[in-house]
Structure formats: C-alpha cells, structure tokens
Amino acid sequence: MLSYVWRNLLTRKIRTALSVLGVSASVAGIVALISIAYGMRSSIDAYMEGGGASLIVYSGHVADLIFSSVKQEELDAIAAWDDVEDVSRSHFFMVKPPAPLDGGESDLAMLFCFGRYRGERMLEQFATRLTEGGLFRNKNEIIASVSIADALGWKLNDEVEVFPGQAFKVVGLYESPSNWEQLGVMMDADVLGEKLGRRDNYNIAFIYCKTADGARSADEISAATAAAIQEKYPHLKAIKPGEFTSSFKEQLAIMDEFIAMITVIALVVGVLGVLNTMMMSVHERTREIGMLRALGWSRGWVIKLILLEGVVLCAIGGAFGLLFGYLGSELLIAAYPQAHLVAVYLPSTFVKGGIVAFAVGLLAALYPAYAASNLRPVVALRYE
Where are the domains of the chain? Predict the structure, then answer.
C-alpha cells in the first residue's frame, strides 16, 4: 500500500510540493520560535551564572527584577556571616541608545546599563575580558562591550553620553560570553543608582559562599546560606544563579502561552492546506476509488489508504520543517548579530514539531478518508 500511496503523491507533483511546503513552513516556525525562546531563557541563566556567585538575592515579591530592592543593611549583615566570603551589589537598567558618534544610524533597540562597584567580584572579573584599556576607577568612566562600541562608533578614551547631558569616558572595551552583557556598558553603581532614584538598595546581589569546610560541600553551604537568608529576610529570595528563570515561571508563562497560540494557528493553517489537497485528490480519483471498491477493497482499506497518504505527505513536510526550522533560526541569528540572539535546540522541540506534522496529516485526512469510503462503487465508476 505504501508504494501505491507514493505513486499517487508523485502523480500530482506540484500539488504535493505545495502541501509539503505549507506543512514545513508551519513546523519550521514552531521549531524556530521555541528554540529562540529557550535560547533567551538559557542566556539569562548564563548571565546570572557568569559571575561565579553561589547565590543571587533579590526581592521575592516582584514581577520584574527592575523593581527588586535589596537593602545595604541587609547585605552588610549577610556579608558578616561565617559562610559568606564576598558580596557583589548590582544595578541594571535599559535606556535608549545614544546616537552614534559618526552621525550615522544604529540598529540597536536598547542599551543595557550595569552598575557595579570597584573592588567587587562582579566588576573585577572583567579584567580578564578586556580587549583594550582597563576597568573604570572613577564615576565618570565606563567600560563598554566591543559590540556596543562598534555599533555606536565609540573608541577608547572617547567622551560619550549614555544619559542625556551626562558625559562618560570610555576607558575599556570588553568581550563577554553573556549576550546580555554584550549589549551593554558597565558603570559605577552609585551613578546608575542615582539615575534610578535608589539610595542604599540594589536590584540584585551576588553572594559568594565558602567552597567547602571539610564537613560540608559547597552545595550544602550554599543551600544553608540561602535558607538562612530567606528565614531572616522573608521578603528576599536566594537561589542558585542557574535557577533564575525557573523562579520567574509565572511571568515567563506569557511566552509559553504565546508559543502555544502560534502552534495552534500553525496547526489550523496546516490542516486546512492539507485538507484542501486531500479533498481534491479524492475528487479527482473518484473512478479509481470506485474501481478499488468494485475489486473488493473494503471501506476500511480505503480509509487506511487516504489516512496513510495524509500522514506520509505531512511526514515529509515535517522532516523538511525540522530542517528549515534549524536553518531559519541560524539565518535569523546571523542576519541580526546586533541582537545577540541565541537558539537552544532541545530534542523535545523537534519532537513537538514532529507531533504537529503528524497531527496535521491525521486531522486533514480524516474527512477525505470518510468521504472516499462512502463512495458507492456503481456511482463512482460512472463518474467522469
């Protein structure tokens, strides 16, 4: 039966190709969207983990980290604990990028500003990431990522305006493994805190615990410190850096709902496209189906034939869709390097794409299979 199905699909090459293209486009869109969404989540966790901290601390009741507030007095108390080696304080904010120095136009949609303190690990680690210059030591100095410098025409020792009317000297350029830091600049945390109207409180704090004490492992020390922080300061949340996005699952659920909506739309579009193809195929083969029935084919065999055609058609489209989804994601990332997009290709993503393709084939072929099985042989053989 499979060879018969294959012959029928090849008989109408253009129609088959268009149906395959429609299914592959739907599957490719789903694969690309899910992969880039997972990539965004993983890049956030990678940024949090990049500082090498044992824990990150922020307000547990906020929906957005921008509104988080960790007080200086709380951090002073935590820093005095025996299991804590160091604490790094940080602000961050997004601003509209300034105009390039050369008077041209920039493709940047936003500029991330990270507030860090001299002498604290979250800034000092950039000493090894610098490609030119050094770390800032004064409040009117910044270091910028190479990507930002290239996009805005900045060079070492240039005077630039990150905020309107406030000039900063670019004293260093860096490369970072974090896509978020690649889209930003580092400045004195007090300067950024003043712009945010913050005094003695921070968006987030990075806690560095002791690695081990002989009786306990580093993970045990971190877990005990996290529990102690949340017990003493119930309004704060202390978690491992790699667990950050999972702690905001309610907020990120909006992204999941959007992906689900796109999946449903792709499913409906795919079903309608393949349904049209299958109905036309059944209509054109009325005499052929009638002859098969006259030769002894049962209704069940006719149903199996049409369903198999639909599934094979969509299996081919699904296979191409998985490939196009991967290639499309990579092309999108290459086409917009300034966005620093990341795609993460999980096996579950390709499984979901395959399930969508199979569902399209099965659903789209149900009614045509039912219609074909109900054709009366005598009537069908007289069909012209």
Answer: 2-43+251-381, 55-239
